[in-house]
Amino acid sequence: MTTQEVANRLVELCRKGQIFEAQEELYDDNIVCIEPPHSPMPLTQGKKAVFEKGKMFASMIEERHGGSFGDPVVNGRFFCVPTTIDATMTGRGRQVLEELSMYEVKDGKIVAETFFY
Questions:
Q1: Which of 1, 12, 20, 57 would be a feasible disulfide site paired with 5, CB 3.0-4.6 Å?
Q2: Cβ–Cβ contacts within 10 Å for residue 2, how many?
Q3: Residue 111 belongs to domain spanning
């Protein structure tokens, strides 16, 4: 798949709420996930570890009120997707979380993701 096809597929699945399915289908086994230094897990390596981190985040959501996945912007082997989540988080109350997610694609798989928030 091209970078555009990977980006479109990721957004398609995420908009359906199929985030874990997107990871299974599109992530490389050796993916690297980078988050800001102030996050609890600034660096996660490997598909299984990234999947587990996602499950941990999902478990902190008490109630989801809304959110969106914007259209991907593709440049070469990279693409970005603006994302918002309106949710009640355990111990933190209701919040609107906004981030820009950047992905790197090689050989039709996502090999790196970086989150800015």
A1: 1
A2: 11
A3: 3-116
